[in-house]
Specification:
alpha+beta, single chain, 428 residues, four-stranded antiparallel β-sheet
């Protein structure tokens, strides 16, 4: 393994080619449908000299479930069928508006150590990194006890369109063989092992009252006040039922589960008019030690109880109320989920894969400072529940994920290359 080196020139050259495709792999359906094959074609060309079709050891599978949106499975056989796998580097990106950027997001540019462009951190930089690891190992003809696998996926950035990427690969049994070893999800950040991520659900709380002149408040039901007080009551019950969990400290979560508003709205009208409707939107971030489905069911129960007892909800002043008995009117609230909740993950910190990752990180970076966040990652919990030993690492920067003026560090990517090699060395 000591003969396997990071080739900086090859890394930057391949990264330049795939960042040049970033405009065409933006994933924001239905406006932007990516063509991940545009990235895959550069990966395939780079790997061609070490592929089995050219007499090399690297087996390459290009698997499509949707035209132009393929996944790549790269397999370097070892002496056994036990595996070490690098999965999750994805060939799609989030959108970028060039008018908001200080440089062209769809062209790789250098600023000292910075590699700038959409996808450098999330996640085309990791696509190139993993690809370079696989080529270097194959070219050096390293004797490996375990089989080394890399899975480069399509459609990570949009879970609303299933059946394209890693979910379909699992359903079709294409990844069953990598259950024989740790699976390193290579799409997180900040160069340290990630112990866990949060679950997430987006929601809208809508309140309906009675529109009326604000100078005659006795004839109105104010939906803004109703929405505010209902949200306050829902949050109070949420935090009572789903408090900080003891394992959050063990896994280094800096935040417990939260429920919070992020947007307010109403249909419009004059300032002297109490509207008929108002709403607030927000999200839940749930640590993996609480079941997101139980959280969602509990919130639905809170809403039903508040509607059944609307007159008991706190009010604001003598004219604030949520019922007009003489008119047979009652205010009401609706809680609308924006899709199914996504579950978080806590990795198995007793796994040999976790130990190998921590040792590799210490070997290359000098220390281990693992972390956990209530930001969310798609796919990983489902993979864990399907029997894969998921561990998580990445070498970009959290502060540039999905950000304007995204960048990565060439030095950190080079160190990441050697971390992945050390993971292979350290896994028994």
């Amino acid at each position: 393994m000591e003969n396997v080196k990071f080739n900086e020139e090859e890394f930057v050259s391949l990264l330049e080619k795939v960042i040049g495709e970033a405009k065409f792999v933006q994933n924001n359906a239905p406006e932007n449908i990516p063509e991940e094959d545009r990235v895959a074609q550069h990966v395939l060309e780079y790997l061609k000299p070490v592929s089995t079709e050219n007499g090399g050891p690297l087996k390459i599978e290009h698997i499509h479930y949707v035209e132009k949106r393929g996944n790549l499975i790269l397999t370097l056989p070892g002496e056994t069928d036990e595996t070490i796998s690098f999965v999750g580097a994805h060939m799609d990106v989030v959108t970028a508006n060039p008018e908001d950027w200080s440089f062209d997001p769809f062209k790789l540019t250098r600023d000292g150590d910075k590699l700038r462009g959409r996808g450098t951190t999330d996640c085309l930089g990791h696509v190139v990194l993993v690809t370079c690891v696989m080529k270097a190992l194959a070219a050096a003809n390293v004797k490996l006890r375990r089989t080394i696998v890399a899975v480069l996926i399509a459609n990570e950035e949009n879970s609303s369109l299933p059946g394209i990427g890693v979910d379909k690969l699992v359903d079709e049994g294409k990844l069953e063989f990598i259950k024989k070893g740790p699976v390193f999800w290579t799409d997180v950040a900040d160069q340290q092992p990630c112990n866990g991520t949060g679950g997430m659900a987006s929601w809208k709380l809508k309140a309906t009252g009675k529109l009326f002149h604000s100078g005659i408040p006795q004839n109105a039901i104010n939906p803004i006040e109703l929405c505010s007080e209902a949200l306050s009551e829902i949050q109070r019950r949420f935090y009572a039922d789903f408090p900080a969990h003891p394992k959050e400290a063990e896994y280094k979560f800096k935040s417990p589960s939260t429920m919070k508003p992020t947007q307010w709205g109403y249909p419009g009208g004059s300032v002297n008019q109490i509207p008929r409707e108002a709403w607030v939107c927000g999200d839940l971030r749930i640590t993996p030690f609480h079941d997101v489905k139980k959280v969602a069911a509990a919130i639905d129960g809170y809403v039903a109880d508040i509607n059944a007892n609307i007159g008991s909800l706190a009010t604001r002043g003598p004219m604030s109320k949520y019922e007009l008995p003489e008119e047979g009117l009652r205010g009401k609230i609706e809680f609308i989920w924006d899709g199914a909740p996504m579950a978080g993950i806590a990795v198995d910190m007793t796994s040999p894969g976790y130990a190998a990752l921590c040792k590799a990180t210490e070997d290359i970076f000098g220390s281990v400072n693992s972390y956990a966040i209530t930001g969310s990652l798609p796919c990983v919990r489902e993979l864990q529940e399907a029997g894969f030993d998921i561990q998580m690492i990445g070498f970009g920067f959290m502060k540039t994920y999905h950000a304007v003026d995204e960048y990565a560090s060439l030095e950190m990517m080079g160190k990441g290359f050697h971390v992945l090699l050390k993971v292979i060395e350290n896994t028994p």
